[in-house]
Design a protein that fits this description.
heterodimer; A: alpha+beta; Arc Repressor Mutant, subunit A; 9-stranded mixed β-sheet; 3-stranded antiparallel β-sheet; 15 helices; 19% strand; B: alpha/beta; Amidase signature (AS) enzymes; 11 strands
C-alpha cells in the first residue's frame, strides 16, 4: 500500500481535510424475513407479504432466520472481520407508523461481527484501507405511503422485518472519491458473496454518510450524518457539498453542530433534518423474546470454507495471469464482468487478449447501449471465439470489430461468420503483393511523392487494405509495401 | 369413583374419568357449567362467555367418545384467561385498547388444550395486561372473590392478575382454568381463592399467542381445584414450540403418575428471609404447620438462606415495567384494537388512543418502564436490576444444593376488600413479595390451599422447585393437600344475589 496522498480542500484560512465514515444498510439476500416466514420479494402488492409477527399482532414472537445469520457471518468473513460467537439482539424503541411493534429488533452492544477491513482502489492506482467497525443484523421498517389519499397516510408492511446488515466503517475515508469507491467496493464484495443484491435503486443498499472536516492532522471535527444517499454519484456530491458547507461555516466563525441532514439530490445539497438534541432516546435493552445468538465455531468454519474468491484475491490472480493491475481491477469491480471474463477464459480465450477486448471493445458497446453485462447480446463464448481468432491471426483487429457488430446485431457463431463471409485474414503474401502492385501501378504520382514524404506510406497501406477488403494483415502489408517502395524498415 | 350430586362439583380428574367411562356426556357436563357461569355473573369472572362454542365442542367430543377416539381432556370444559389469543373469539387482555380485538390465530397453549379435546366455556376477566394483584385494574370491572369472610357481606378481591380464572375455578364455574404468572398472577389469586395454582418453569409452556406483559417473566400455568388436576392440565399445556425461541425442549413427564409418591426423604428448604415483618401471625403459623406436616410424612426440613430476597420486589418492579413499556408500544391504534376518534395527526392518534385505551395502572407501569430504560438511568436501574436478578437466581441454585424443594407462604395475607388497596400501589405490589422471586429465577412454583384464617378465608402455601422439576413441586403440594385435608368451599352467595 502506498503512502496516502493528501486530498485537501482549500479554504480562506488554509487547507482542510475531509473525514468520512459510513453506515451502510444492506438488505440480506434471503427468501424470508429476519424473524418471520414472510417473503422478502421486491415489488409485491402492498401488505401482501406480512406475517402476524411483521404486523406486531398481540402475542406474536420473533424467531431468528438461520439463513440470515449465515449471510451475516458470510459477509463478516468477506470483510475479513472478527465473528462474534455470541451476539445479542436488542430492542430500539420509538414510535413511528412504519414501525409496527414500536421497536426495531437490532443489535446494539454485542453485534454479530466485529472489526474488519475493506481495501479500495483509487483511480490513481493508490490502494486505501478502510476499517470496518462492526456489522450487525436488524429489521427493516415498513413504508409509509402519503400519496394515496388526500388526508390519510397508508402503511405498507411488506418491508417490515426484512433482514438488514448495518455495516459501520471507521472514519477512514478522506475524500468524496474514497467514499464512493468504498461503497462500490463494498457492493462488489456483498455481490460476490451473494449476501446482498446491492441494488441501490430498490433500496437494498442505502448509505448514511458521516462527514466532518479538520485541519490536516488536527483533531477530528464535529460530524454531520447525511441520511439515505442512494447512489455513488450522490455520495460524492453529498460529501463535497457537506465538506464545503462545514469549511465555509467554520471559516465564517460558526461551529458545526452535530445533526442529521438529508441529501436533496435535485438541489445537490444537504439540509438539516434534526439536531442531536432532538434525537430519540431509543431505550435499547436486550430483547427478552430472543435468547443470545450463539454460533457454533465449526459452522462458522464451514461457511468460511464455502466463501467464493473475492475481488481482491481475484484481482491478484488475474494479475498473475498477465493482466495489468488496471485491467484486472476494472474486471473484478463488478461480479458480472469478472464472471464474464472467466467464462471467456473457460472458452479458451487468452487472458490478456480477452481483458483487452472486453475493456476496450465489448464493455464500451454495452455502456453505449445502456446494457448491463447480463443483458448484452453477445455470449462470453462468442467473444472468446473472436479473441481466439485475433490471437491466431485468423482475423485482424479491425475485422474482429466487424465480426462483433455482426454477432451483436444478428447473432451467430463468429467462426462460421468469418468463414461464410470470407473475412479470414490473407496470409498468402502473393495475393497481398498483387494488390500492392495494383495500387502502385494506379498511382505513379503518389509513388514519387512517398519518396520525399515517407509518412505517405500509411496512405498506401489504406489503399491496399481497401483492395483486400480489409482482410490483409496490416503488419504484413506494411512490411511488403516498404520493401517495394524502397522505404526504410523503421518509420 | 362416584358421580357428584352436582356436576359442577367435579374435579378435572373425576370428570375426565366419568366422561371417558361414558357415565356423563360432555354435553351434560358442559351445559351444567354454562348454567353455572350464567348464574355467577355477579362475580364478573368472565369477560366473554362462549356457550354456543362450548356446546359445539362438547357435542363433537361426545361423537369422538362414542367412536372410541377420546383424547386425554376430551369434553372437559375449561375457562381461558383473556390474555390467551383465541381465534375468532374476542381477546381483550382486560384492556379498553383491545376491547374490540378478535385474534385471527390461536395461542399455542390453548391450541394444545383443544387438541387434547378440551372445551372452551369462555374468557376470564383479569387485571389489565396482567398488571395487578386484585383484578381491580380490569377495564371490564373488578372480579369478586367467591369467598367472603365469616358473617360478612363485603366483597373481597380474588387476587390478580388471573382473578377471573381463580374465581371461576373456586366458584365451580369450570373444571379448571388457564392463568399466566409474571410475578405471582397464578399463585397469589389461587392462594386467596382456595385453589391450586402452578407457575411452571420459564420455557415450559409456549408464550406464543399470549399477550405479552413482561416477556422474560411471563409463563402460563394451570389453575385447578386439586393438585392432581394441576398435574393433568400442565401436561397438556406444556410443549416446546418452534414459534417461541424461549420455550425449552425438555420432555414433558406424566406429572400425574408420580403424584402420590410421598415426601419421605424429600429435603424441604425453609428460607428464613421469607419471614417478613408485619405479616399476620396466621401466615407464619400456617407455614410452620406446613413444615410439621411434611416432617411427619418423612421429609427432612432444612433451613436455607436466600440472601437477596429483599431486593426481589424492587428488581421485579424495574424489569417487568421495562419490558412492558416496550411490549405495549404496539398498541397504538393503527393496526388493531381501539383507535381514538377525531385526531389531527399521527402523534395525536398515538397519544389519545393510548391515553383512552390504557388504564391508570398500565400507564403507571409504562411510565416506570420508560424511565428505567431511558439514557442516563439505564445503568442505575435496569442494568442493576439485571445483576440482582442473576444474584437472586444464584441464591436459589445455592439453596438447592441443600434441599430439593422450598416451602414458603404464598401470600402475605388472605383476600382483602375491594377498593382497600387501590389507592396505594406499593401496598398492592407487596402482595407479590413471596412470588416474584420465582419468576425472576425462572423456577416452578405452586400455591396449594392449606388452611383458613380465623375469619374463614383461605390461605395457601407455596412450593418452589428446581428448574423443570414440576414433578417434585406437585408431589410436595399433593402431600400438603392430603395433610391439611383442606376441603372448604365458598358458599355460593352469588346465586342468591
Amino acid at each position: 500500500m502506498s503512502e496516502r496522498s493528501a486530498k485537501l480542500i482549500k479554504g480562506t484560512t488554509g487547507d482542510w481535510e475531509i473525514v468520512v465514515g459510513m453506515e451502510v444498510h444492506a438488505q440480506i439476500l434471503s427468501q424470508s424475513k429476519l424473524f418471520s416466514g414472510a417473503s422478502t420479494a421486491f415489488g409485491g402488492e402492498p401488505n401482501a407479504q406480512v406475517s402476524f409477527v411483521d404486523a406486531a399482532m398481540p402475542g406474536m414472537l420473533p424467531v431468528i432466520n438461520r439463513k440470515c445469520v449465515e449471510q451475516a457471518v458470510r459477509t463478516g468473513l468477506g470483510l475479513k472481520a472478527k465473528i462474534n460467537l455470541v451476539s445479542v439482539f436488542d430492542r430500539k424503541n420509538y414510535f413511528y407508523p412504519d414501525l409496527p411493534a414500536g421497536y426495531q429488533i437490532s443489535q446494539y452492544k454485542n453485534p454479530i461481527v466485529g472489526e474488519g477491513e475493506v481495501l479500495i482502489d483509487l483511480k490513481d492506482g493508490e490502494t486505501v484501507r478502510v476499517g470496518i467497525e462492526r456489522l450487525h443484523m436488524e429489521q427493516d421498517a415498513a413504508k409509509s405511503l402519503h400519496d394515496q389519499h388526500p388526508d390519510h397516510s397508508y402503511v405498507d408492511l411488506n418491508r417490515s422485518g426484512v433482514a438488514l446488515m448495518e455495516i459501520v466503517t471507521k472514519p477512514d475515508m478522506r475524500s468524496s472519491e474514497e467514499a464512493a469507491a468504498f461503497l462500490r467496493k463494498l457492493r462488489a464484495i456483498v455481490r460476490y458473496l451473494g449476501t446482498c443484491d446491492g441494488n441501490l435503486d430498490e433500496g437494498s443498499m442505502r448509505a448514511d454518510v458521516n462527514v466532518s472536516v479538520r485541519k490536516p492532522a488536527g483533531p477530528l471535527g464535529t460530524r454531520c450524518e447525511i441520511k439515505n444517499v442512494n447512489s455513488m454519484k450522490f455520495i460524492a456530491q453529498a460529501v463535497e457539498f457537506e465538506a464545503r458547507r462545514q469549511v465555509d461555516l467554520i471559516e465564517e466563525g460558526g461551529t458545526v453542530k452535530q445533526e442529521t441532514r438529508l441529501f436533496d439530490s435535485r438541489a445537490g445539497e444537504t439540509r438539516s433534518m434534526r439536531s442531536k438534541e432532538e434525537a430519540h432516546d431509543y431505550r435499547y435493552f436486550p430483547d427478552p423474546d430472543l435468547l443470545p445468538l450463539v454460533l457454533d465455531e465449526a459452522w462458522v468454519k464451514e461457511i468460511e470454507k464455502s466463501l467464493p474468491e473475492l475481488p481482491d484475491e481475484k484481482k491478484a490472480r488475474l494479475i498473475k495471469l498477465g493482466l495489468s493491475p488496471y485491467d484486472a481491477s476494472v474486471l473484478v469491480a463488478e461480479k458480472e464482468s469478472a464472471d464474464y471474463f472467466e467464462a471467456m477464459l473457460g472458452a479458451g480465450a487468452e487472458p490478456k487478449a480477452a481483458a483487452n477486448w472486453l475493456n476496450n471493445e465489448y464493455f464500451g458497446r454495452l455502456n453505449k447501449a445502456g446494457l448491463g453485462i447480463a443483458d448484452g447480446p453477445v455470449s462470453a463464448k462468442a467473444n472468446a471465439a473472436i479473441v481466439a481468432m485475433i490471437s491466431s491471426d485468423v482475423i485482424s483487429g479491425k475485422i474482429a470489430k466487424d465480426v462483433l457488430d455482426i454477432v451483436w446485431n444478428e447473432g451467430g457463431d463468429p467462426n462460421a461468420i468469418v468463414e461464410s463471409r470470407g473475412l479470414k485474414q490473407m496470409t498468402d503474401t502473393s495475393a497481398i503483393e498483387k494488390a500492392i502492385d495494383a495500387v502502385i501501378a494506379a498511382n505513379p504520382d503518389k509513388v514519387e511523392e512517398v519518396k520525399q514524404k515517407p509518412k505517405l506510406a500509411a496512405w498506401f497501406v489504406g489503399q491496399v487494405m481497401r483492395q483486400t477488403g480489409g482482410k490483409a494483415n496490416p503488419g504484413v502489408v506494411n512490411a511488403l509495401l516498404k520493401a517495394r517502395l524502397g522505404l526504410p524498415e523503421q518509420g | 369413583m362416584s358421580l357428584p350430586a352436582i356436576l359442577t362439583d367435579f374435579t378435572l380428574a373425576d370428570a375426565r374419568d366419568a366422561v371417558h367411562a361414558k357415565k356423563v356426556s360432555s354435553k351434560e357436563l358442559t351445559a351444567a357449567f354454562i348454567k353455572a357461569v350464567a348464574a355467577a355473573r355477579p362475580l364478573n369472572a368472565f369477560v366473554t362467555e362462549t356457550p354456543e362454542r362450548a356446546l359445539e365442542m362438547a357435542v363433537a367430543s361426545d361423537v369422538r367418545i362414542a367412536h372410541g377416539e377420546a383424547r386425554p381432556l376430551e369434553g372437559l370444559p375449561l375457562a381461558i384467561k383473556d390474555l390467551f389469543c383465541t381465534k375468532g373469539v374476542k381477546t381483550t387482555a382486560g384492556s379498553n385498547i383491545l376491547s374490540n380485538f378478535i385474534p385471527p390465530y390461536e395461542s399455542t397453549v390453548s391450541q394444545n388444550l383443544w387438541d387434547a379435546g378440551a372445551v372452551m366455556l369462555g374468557k376470564t376477566n383479569m387485571d389489565e395486561f396482567a398488571m395487578g394483584s386484585s383484578n381491580e385494574t380490569s377495564h371490564f370491572g373488578p372480579v369478586f372473590n367467591p369467598w367472603r369472610a365469616r358473617n360478612s357481606n363485603a366483597n373481597l378481591v380474588p387476587g390478580g392478575s388471573s382473578g377471573g380464572s381463580a374465581a371461576a375455578v373456586s366458584g365451580n364455574l369450570c373444571l379448571a382454568a388457564t392463568g399466566t404468572d409474571t410475578g405471582g398472577s397464578i399463585r397469589q389469586p389461587a392462594a386467596v381463592t382456595g385453589i391450586v395454582g402452578l407457575k411452571p418453569t420459564y420455557g415450559r409452556c409456549s408464550r406464543w399467542g399470549i399477550v405479552a406483559f413482561a416477556s422474560s417473566l411471563d409463563q402460563a400455568g394451570p389453575m385447578t381445584r386439586t393438585v392432581r388436576d394441576a398435574a393433568i392440565l400442565l401436561k397438556h399445556m406444556a410443549s416446546v414450540d418452534p414459534k417461541d425461541s424461549t420455550s425449552v425442549d425438555m420432555p414433558v413427564p406424566d406429572y400425574e403418575a408420580g403424584l402420590e409418591a410421598g415426601v419421605k426423604g424429600l429435603r424441604v428448604g425453609i428460607p428464613r428471609e421469607y419471614l417478613i415483618d408485619g405479616a399476620p401471625p396466621e401466615i407464619e403459623a400456617l407455614w410452620s404447620k406446613g413444615a410439621d406436616w411434611l416432617k411427619a410424612l418423612g421429609a427432612e426440613i432444612v433451613d436455607v438462606s436466600l440472601p437477596h430476597t429483599k431486593y426481589a420486589l424492587p428488581t421485579y418492579y424495574i424489569v417487568a415495567p421495562a419490558e412492558a413499556s416496550s411490549n405495549l408500544a404496539r398498541y397504538d391504534g393503527v393496526r388493531f384494537g381501539r383507535r381514538a376518534a377525531s385526531v389531527g395527526d399521527v402523534v395525536e392518534l398515538y397519544e389519545k388512543s393510548r391515553a383512552e385505551g390504557f388504564g391508570k395502572e398500565v400507564q403507571r407501569r409504562i411510565l416506570i418502564g420508560t424511565y428505567v430504560l431511558s439514557s442516563g438511568y439505564y445503568d442505575a436501574y435496569y442494568a442493576r436490576a439485571q445483576k440482582l436478578r442473576t444474584l437472586i437466581a444464584r441464591d436459589f441454585n445455592e439453596a438447592f444444593k441443600k434441599c430439593d424443594v422450598l416451602l414458603t407462604p404464598a401470600t402475605p395475607g388472605p383476600a382483602f376488600g375491594v377498593g382497600e388497596k387501590t389507592a396505594d400501589p406499593v401496598s398492592m405490589y407487596l402482595n407479590d413479595v413471596f412470588t416474584v422471586t420465582v419468576n425472576l429465577a425462572g423456577l416452578p412454583g405452586i400455591s396449594v390451599p392449606a388452611g383458613l384464617t380465623a375469619s374463614g378465608l383461605p390461605l395457601g402455601l407455596q412450593f418452589i422447585g428446581k428448574a423443570f422439576d414440576e414433578a417434585t413441586v406437585l408431589r410436595a403440594a399433593r402431600a400438603v393437600e392430603l395433610a391439611s385435608g383442606f376441603d372448604a368451599k365458598p358458599t355460593q352467595w352469588w346465586r342468591a344475589a
